[in-house]
Every structure is written in C-alpha cells, then in structure tokens.
Amino acid sequence: MAARWGLAARGVIYLLVGVLALRIAFGDNGEQADRGGALHALAKQPFGSALVWAVGVGLAGMALWRLSEAVFGAAGPDGRKTSKRLASAGRFVFYTVVAYSVLSFAAGEKGSGSSDKQSQDVTSRVMDLPAGRWLVGIGGIVIACAGVWIAFRAIQRKYHKHLKLSEMSPRIRKAVDVLGVGGGVARGAVFAVAGGFAVAAAVRYDPDKAKGIDDTLRTFSRTAAGPWLLVAVAVGLALFGLFSFAMARWRRV
User: Fold this and answer.
1) Taking each helix axis from N to C terminus, what angle separates 82-106 and 35-43, rounded to the nearest 10 degrees?
2) Residues 6+ apart with CB under 8 A from 91
C-alpha cells in the first residue's frame, strides 16, 4: 500500500510539473515548474491542503517502501543483490528528503524557495569546502550520466520486468509503453541537462551557473527550436506522471 500510494504521489508531482512547464512554454510565467510550484498549484485546488498532505504521506510511503527493499530485498529474482539494496537505500534517502519538504509545506512552512535558488545555494556551500569545485563537477557528471541512463533504460523498456504484464491487455501495454518511453526520455533529458549545468558551474567556479528544475526547463525554450522543445519535454514529464499512476496499479512490489 505504501509503495503504490508513493508511486501515485510521484505521479501527481510530475504531472503538475509538466502542466506548469507547458504553461511557461505558452507564455505564462506565474508558477515555478518544479516541486514547489506543483505544491503551490495543488494547494490552490478545492481541498488543496488535504491533497498536499496526501502527496506528502504518499512520498513518505515511497521512502518506507525503498527502506524495506534495502533491508529485506526487492521483488524479483535479483532483488537481494547488494547493488540493488544499495540503490534502494539511496532512493530511501532521496524520498525521505522529498517527503520531509512536502510535509513541511503542508504544515505551513514556506520552505527555502525555488529549486533554482536551492541549487545555487547548495552549489555555493559545496564549493566553499576543500576540493568543493571537484565535488560539484563530479556530482554534475553523476547526475548527467543518470539522466542518460534513465532515458536509455526507458527506450529499452526495462520497466517491463517490474510490471504484472499478464494482468494487462495488449492495448493497455501499448499505452503504458507510450507513457514509459516518452516520460522516461523526457525525465532523463532534464536530469542530463541539469547535470551539465552543475559541471559548468564547477568549471567556471560560478554557483549561479547551477540550475534547478525550473530554470533547466526554461532553458529548453531558449534553444533554436524555441518553445516547442519545452513543449515536448513538458508533455514528456506529464506522460511520466501518468506512467507513475500505471506503475502504482501494475508494478510488482
């Protein structure tokens, strides 16, 4: 239950970020296209406070699920491998931080601002450490490589091994593949570009070159393709949100 609730909560965040990015592509700069913007948009809806709490609890459930995988092993024949357990432990830490930020927002805390400001602040603090410039550069490379890896695995449809394919009709499988491939490629592209900005910040020794999700997405609209590349990425992120809903329904946990 915690896993499925968590996957659905992740879907809500990505779907809203995709919608906000689409609005930016068409000239509406009202909300930040990141988790904070998504939470603000959700809070404005009827019963918005309850919805934000539900998302926060769901993400806490996601963290709990990943912790259980790290301790007891994940579903599947290779779920008890050390590498799988370590990956789940890393995801547990990540979703714990995300869940804390969402629950803090639900409790009324304003938070630390947009993802862009947070990225610049963190980059600046790390650069002040011994060998901080190298740490930022290595971190950026890791994030960029993770983005490429996410996109590549989506194209290969590696998520099939996690799905209860026997319970899905051929039509549903095709629909889920559209969501999984399109969403995974868009999500990977955002990670890869954000990692590239972190590397640029390290090379130029300028924390302001680091960008959060919102500014990374806005960068897509400044390319030769104009706002249409941002439209494509925004639609992809919304597709990943819908894919997360499908995973909440059919994933083996």
Assistant:
1) 40
2) 66
Q: How many CB atoms lie within 10 A of CB 153?
A: 14
Going from N- to C-terminal start, the domains of the chain cover 2-250
Query: From the CB of residue 91, how many other CB atoms can be counted at a distance below 10 Å?
Result: 17
- Report helix, strand or coil for 163: strand
Task: Quote the pLDDT of residue 214.
Answer: 84
Residue type, 134: W
What is the Cα–Cα distance from 177 to 171, expressed in whole angstroms? 10
Encode pLDDT of 97-108 as tens digits.
Answer: 999 999 998 988
Q: What is the pLDDT of residue 114?
A: 61
Cα separation, 107 vs 105, whole angstroms = 5
pTM over 0.85: yes
